[in-house]
Design brief:
11 strands, alpha+beta, 5-stranded mixed β-sheet, elongated
């Protein structure tokens, strides 16, 4: 009996070491630290914050204030079925991007942050919503217009590409209060 148990344990260990590498899970996560998601997507998809009134004159001022002060960071947490070693070529080919869409218009770019778990079992990609808004409004010529609550909601898709692909989408709104 003991011999059969040892054989089963050995086979189980060998099989788990050779598991197919794949995405085990992916979730929206706005802050990942200490091995866990500390802040998921905003409640009901709406980021709430205060902003000085003088920063609400243009989308540019508004979005840059968001980047440096309120720091909304939509992110994608991805976990794999097994670790990916730092020297594995697949690891260096993986990259994250975002696509921000509204009313048939969209903007896409790579995500600014990509942080690997120490053991290679997962990663977290993120970018600043303020940066995404600047890129969108520059592309469509509205960067000098005043921000308007009616611009929201927007649709945001976060994607991991490069061999192990996954994507998650969410609707995002902003609710800001201008202060004097």
């Amino acid at each position: 009996m003991l011999r059969n148990s040892s054989l089963c344990l050995t086979l189980l260990l060998l099989m788990s070491c050779n598991r197919q590498l794949a995405v085990e899970s992916s979730t929206i996560c706005d802050d990942f630290a200490d091995g866990k998601c500390k802040e998921g997507p905003p409640q009901n998809g709406v980021y709430r914050f205060q902003i000085p009134a003088e920063k609400t004159k243009t989308w540019f001022d508004f979005a840059y204030h968001m980047y440096f002060h309120s720091r909304q960071t939509p992110g994608l947490r991805v976990e794999f079925t097994r670790d990916i070693a730092a020297d594995n070529p697949l690891r260096s080919s993986l990259h994250c991007k975002y696509k921000l869409e509204r009313g048939g218009k969209s903007v896409e770019d790579h995500m600014e942050g990509l942080r690997w778990d120490e053991d290679g079992s997962g990663l977290w990609c993120f970018d600043y919503l303020g940066t995404m808004l600047v890129k969108y409004h520059k592309q469509y010529g509205s960067i000098k217009d005043p921000p308007n609550i009616d611009f929201f909601p927007i649709h945001l898709t976060l994607t991991l590409e490069g061999g192990l692909n996954t994507a998650r989408s969410q609707s995002i709104g902003l609710d800001w209060q201008a202060t004097r």
